[in-house]
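Example 239, ligand flavin-adenine dinucleotide.
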Amino acid sequence: AQAVLAGASGQLRTMATVGGNLLQRTRCGYFTDITRPCNKREPGSGCPAIEGEHHNHAVLGASEHCVAVHPSDMGVALTAFDAVVSWRTADGADEAPLTDFYLPVGDTPHRETVLPPGALITHVTLPPARVAARSRYRKVRERASYAFAIGSVAAALEVDDGVIRDARLALGAVASRPWRARLAERILVGAPATAEYFAVAADAELAAARPLPHNGYKVTLLRNLVVAVLTELAEETSR
Ligand SMILES: Cc1cc2nc3c(=O)[nH]c(=O)nc-3n(C[C@H](O)[C@H](O)[C@H](O)COP(=O)(O)OP(=O)(O)OC[C@H]3O[C@@H](n4cnc5c(N)ncnc54)[C@H](O)[C@@H]3O)c2cc1C
Ligand code: SF4
């Protein structure tokens, strides 16, 4: 709910659908400017963002062919909690975990999801997760409302006697898809619920970051965001 409420404006949220939100395209300015080349819009034409305007582009999982980010807020929270996307085509029904729904960028940035042509998303399922009882979505943007994220975190913690029993972590506005921080989750489970360990987990996840000249700030922003959100959740859990 926090992630949904962080997205767009009241008017847009009233009209928008879950399937449409997950399938929205990138806000990369070169993608929307049809006078410019763009590998995502026109395969093989080039990626001007890499040497151009990329302050809100990807730091994780990008390729030399495209560095765009996925703009969804809701998708980040759904990714953290193992959502499954179900669809239907004329040939029948199928489904995929959201973490596998978006394709890696590679040299085919124009191919974004596993959804077959003509498929209609019918529903998205969230399996029960005890850890979700203590969860949070935090979004950082350049103005207080009606703006896309420059970094976001969906997180949940289950803490018992000061030790992390379960953790969920996904990052937004850092990659071509909502980024499930599985390495950080593995480090967190079994560790003391302290800011020191939260920072170790964040640093480990972000060690794979490959920032461009004008978006390196995202690595620091995401690190601080992860530590802050996890610290808040840990404090709530111990109350
Ligand atoms: C000014 C502005 C600010 C915004 N800010 C944010 C933000 O901060 N965070 C955020 O997350 N989003 C933001 N958005 C995006 C907004 O949330 C999406 O446009 C909206 O969620 C799209 O939903 P929709 O149902 O209108 O999809 P549509 O725009 O109707 O559809 C999007 C795509 O998905 C396809 N599609 C839709 N439903 C299905 C389905 N069931 N099965 C298969 N294909 C389908 C459509 O064919 C289309 O290709 C913003 C948009 C605007 C205009
Ligand atoms: S980052 Fe992706 S969407 Fe943007 S110009 Fe490059 S190829 Fe196109």
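Summary: Residues 1-82+128-239 form a domain with the Enolase-like; domain 1 fold (CATH 3.30.390.50).
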